[in-house]
Amino acid sequence: MQESVMKAWWDSSHMAGANAAYVEELYEAYLEDSQSVSEPWRQVFDNLPKVDGVELETNHSSVKEQFRKLASLGPAARMSGGAASEAVSDERQVKVLQLINAFRFRGHQHANLDPLGLWKQARVRDLELSHHSLSEKDFDTVFNVGSYAIGKDSMSLGDLYKSLNRTYCGSIGAEYMHITDTEQKRWLQQKIESVEARPEFSSDEKRSILKGLVAADGMEKYLSSKFPGAKRFSLEGGDSLIPMLKGLITEAGAAGTKECVIGMAHRGRLNVLVNVLGKNPSVLFDEFSGKHDESLGSGDVKYHAGFSSDFATPGGNVHLALAFNPSHLEIVNPVVMGSVRARIARRSDDNNRVLPITIHGDAAIAGQGVVQETFNMSQTRGFAVGGTVRIVINNQVGFTTSKIADARSTQYCTDIAKMVQAPIFHVNADDPEAVQFVTKLALEYRNKFKKDVVIDLVCYRRHGHNEADEPNATQPLMYQKIKKHPVTREIYTDQLVAEGVLEEREAKKYLEDYRNALDHGACVVEEWRPMTEHSVDWSPYMGHDWDTDYDGKISLDKLKELGEKITTYPEDYKLNSRVNKLYQDRKSMITGDKKLDWGMAENLAYASIVQLGHDIRITGQDSGRGTFFHRHAVLHNQGDGGVHIPLQHISEEQGEMEIYDSVLSEAAVMAFEYGFATAEPNCLTIWEAQFGDFANGAQVVFDQFLSSGEAKWGRLCGLTVLLPHGYEGQGPEHSSARLERFLQMCADHNWQVCVPSTPAQVFNMLRRQMIRPMRKPLIVMSPKSLLRHAMATSTLEELAEGKFHNVIGEIDDIAPENVKRVVMCSGKVYYDLLDQRRKNEQTDIALIRLEQLYPFPQEECAKIVAQYSHVKDWVWCQEEPQNQGAWYCSQHHFWQAIPDGAKLTYAGREASSSPAVGYVSVHNQQQKALVEDALTIK
């Protein structure tokens, strides 16, 4: 419609002048649903010109501006009686559509969510008829319902209002209008509104739900009577979780899922273990009685335990894996996601084959930062898993904190999920059918849109934080209410009896049968099946010693061939000038014209590993380039921004090579990689800190998972952690990877701590991690300045040797019999000592490098030390302050290594509360002093 034509129509219309605001509302309704406005108006809007050739929906503000402009072109037209009638009708129609949208947006705020009835929701005027200039007098008037997916084009206002309240203000509070994707919103509306959030369940389905509630309640009461006062973190109050999980797994299996990985903290864990995963109750009772299998290592408390089983579904057996989880609650979420990512990669098929399920507490999901980190990862290239079903056991109290003003700064504990536009379904846990409905809906949404979805299971906690607590001391009103409140099983039993689905005697028999099954100690899950080959076989990596022989040699020809592969890129690629220079240098290293630097040796190691058929996965905040500009495994075309990874083009049969710059996170990303490595032994999984110091952001992962996971849970893991470490005067947060912390956690041969000092060493260290038939974490104090240090180079022959030397002895021509002092050290300080000793022309001091500090290489060290058996003056030299580094934690190993009767002294910085000084001049003075101290024979 041309502007002149539009003006003519406008001038003759009853909608000119002051009615422009109404037209804007009408236009908004048209954009929401074109069928919601009358035919004349629809024709007008259909014929509006596009703005710059773009559809109206994305530019409606510009079109509205045209209405305002046209309204100012002439006086308001006189309205005839008929026209006035049409205007009033259209205006009310718009108000009705706005009412529907109000319920979609804010109906959840008036939903019946709290089983205890304690929630006092603020009045929401948007949900009142009067707010939309409507009243009960309009109840008999029939209106077009637009996109309201009830299956009717029009309804009386009275019926519509009742329907909206049933759909959005019943036992389910659906939040999804924050989602910007129209297709997703429309899909959810159709699913929810078409059944008014109350689908029909068959009698068999209802009986199945009741059996789940009987099991949930029966398990807790049995434990309470058999082990009174024992900690079990009871599920009571959130009983609907059991039929909910069983229903979720059953539906997932029917949709093609083959594996479910579940992560949860303490609340209800024992119940889930027995009533969902099928753990034998007699085994659990033995654990309560204190029985312990000596072969299981240090073990862990019952409510941290994991478990695996198979679960029968209409689509075949589904393998269930409940992840082990320490008391650090939400940290298990990225671990689960990492495990799922590995399983998806192994299956090489649709994400729907592996389903992650995470179960949260209401206080924890709102309070712990790793939740935000995990949500932020959920749609990124390197960490996406096709969406996670997240379930919140919302007790409405965290330990002793129940006031929202103390627990969080948002209305709901689940508001954090809005950052990724995840739909959130709040549901009253005392309405198990509503719980089943949102569970099925959540799974369908996740499978269709590959995004996270959240179910907020609003319940209560029948006891205190644990069974020894007295909750009345801090929540008196809540617990007075809870004491009188019937359990969900009783509520649902009464409902089914009233519906005629079953008789009371049948419900009692369910209770008796379950109690008898527990008495007999047999599995109580009908769907439980013995495990088949759903997971990877770890047996080849078990039972090996550290000194297990392996063949790590590689021919020079193969090294040169691999070198050519990793320095080749498309001819039309325009590299950054510095990167181009680096790649030209690498070509010279292959021909022997230059010695190999760190970056070239590292890339050669990766090439040799994938060429053997192993996969590699590297993540970190700068992993593609390398924080210190050394790796450049990912090339960026300066012309079009294209990406090329030479390591992905080694051979047709090579293993997968993945390298991702991660989100700016330490805790979640490293936990993800831990989960990945525990699920895939055939992959060299590497997490690299930007600076080693930053790893302290993931300290809980080191403390609770990586260092002790094998001892506590028997979980093998081959994760490699690269922590840039070295004192170059860059200040407290860019010097120390806190070596002492890792050494302090060393015991039971739980992991390796290495400080490689040459390119050949890093090459063979990385290869050893995959070729040797054992999987233990590898902690590497990796270098910064050594990446381009003139003395830190290697030859192809040294790489080809195929051995990582745990200890390296003297390399200069110094006669052992002339040595009066031996200096032992690790890492970069070795080159400072070597350089100064050569300048001093000292021939009576020998240098020994310890490249692996744990497990301490006692035998290898003894062979090198033997030639200095006459030396009584031994020194340990380190860059770190005296109370840090290896001195305190490894000193007992040093004493054991040196000859009997010898004296061991320390050369290094004085003890300090800070890892390093912040001034370069002070750093240089300290560095010079500690080198002089180590090389001065007194």
From TrEMBL:
It catalyses: N(6)-[(R)-lipoyl]-L-lysyl-[protein] + 2-oxoglutarate + H(+) = N(6)-[(R)-S(8)-succinyldihydrolipoyl]-L-lysyl-[protein] + CO2. It comes from the Bacteria. Residues 596-789 form the Transketolase-like pyrimidine-binding domain. GO terms for cellular component: cytosol; oxoglutarate dehydrogenase complex. The keyword Oxidoreductase applies. One of its GO terms (biological process) is tricarboxylic acid cycle. Keywords: Glycolysis, Oxidoreductase, Thiamine pyrophosphate. GO terms for molecular function: oxoglutarate dehydrogenase (succinyl-transferring) activity; thiamine pyrophosphate binding. Gene3D superfamilies: 3.40.50.12470, 3.40.50.970, Multifunctional 2-oxoglutarate metabolism enzyme, C-terminal domain (3.40.50.11610), TPP helical domain (1.10.287.1150). InterPro entries: 2-oxogl_dehyd_N (IPR032106), 2oxoglutarate_DH_E1 (IPR011603), DH_E1 (IPR001017), KGD_C_sf (IPR042179), ODO-1/KGD_C (IPR031717), THDP-binding (IPR029061), Transketolase-like_Pyr-bd (IPR005475). Its EC number is 1.2.4.2. Its cofactor is thiamine diphosphate. NCBIfam families: 2oxo_dh_E1, PRK09404.1, PRK12270.1. E1 component of the 2-oxoglutarate dehydrogenase (OGDH) complex which catalyzes the decarboxylation of 2-oxoglutarate, the first step in the conversion of 2-oxoglutarate to succinyl-CoA and CO(2). Belongs to the alpha-ketoglutarate dehydrogenase family. This is 2-oxoglutarate dehydrogenase E1 component. It comes from Alteromonas halophila. The lineage of its organism: Bacteria, Pseudomonadati, Pseudomonadota, Gammaproteobacteria, Alteromonadales. The gene is sucA.
